């Protein structure tokens, strides 16, 4: 689907790595593997903020017979750890598996930190790169980085969820801000391997609600004849304070047979209130190759009961990866067929949507609101 405004607004070459937090203690040369998956919010001054995941990697991770990963260590800063090449599987460019354990153990080829970038109100031009407000690891549960911010403004507070990565746990952490630019870490709010947590943009009956996505290497078979595949799915949770979360007892959005999302699905944008219910954009992954094909789909949830799905569009994607956008920087590509949508704001007759493109750059798309409507028949049914 083509849109009049659809562009890459920020790419790896736009980053000055002299400002990187790694410069404090890493002497080895690094580069920006990707500047992608941006959280999106409207600032009080009317400009937009994208909170970009910067994946910073070693220029030469392999030296001799060893491969290296970057790790943050309390009281020492950033250090390099070496693993023998004979003891790893490095087929995935984003990570490598450390062999010899009775369970899967991974190490990353990069360390991620978050960079706030201010854009014009329409999201098409950079105004300021806020290097002074970088968010980097500061607790041991973030030793391998901070990833994939999602920002939701509820009343006068900006709530930002991130994935914190460490050998301790792979957790969801919460940051809060009163101005959208300066964030304070509130700690872990979801424990091991629960990714893509996104808060609804508003409370429902006084409670906070959020989409979650628990992960694991083990799933149980669906009943014979089920319309759904077992595997990673979008779930719902509620909270009295945004810190303590109760999972819903009923399933939410699952990978459905006959759809384009046969591998896994997960939350994308913060659910926003419309006159027909809560609108959310999410990613669905088709099984193909090592990583799969990531596309963006959408759903509408009931305004008062978000467990009730009014419409699920999981066959025709609203966004797909666009090779034309990355053509000028195609020499930096290490993945393809990936669009990972991470933020949305209201802009009158359209929405401004932020995505990561091919785990490389930040994409801004203006999508007309009339594409996210219930049909008259669906309205009557619901």
UniProtKB/TrEMBL annotation:
Keywords for the protein's UniProt record, in alphabetical order: Glycosidase, Glycosyltransferase, Hydrolase, Transferase
InterPro entries referenced in this protein's UniProt entry, alphabetically: Glyco_hydro_beta-prop_sf, Mannoside_phosphorylase
Keyword Transferase applies: yes
GO MF entry, a single one: hydrolase activity, acting on glycosyl bonds
Protein family: Belongs to the glycosyl hydrolase 130 family.
Name by which UniProt lists this protein: Glycosidase
Organism: Larkinella terrae
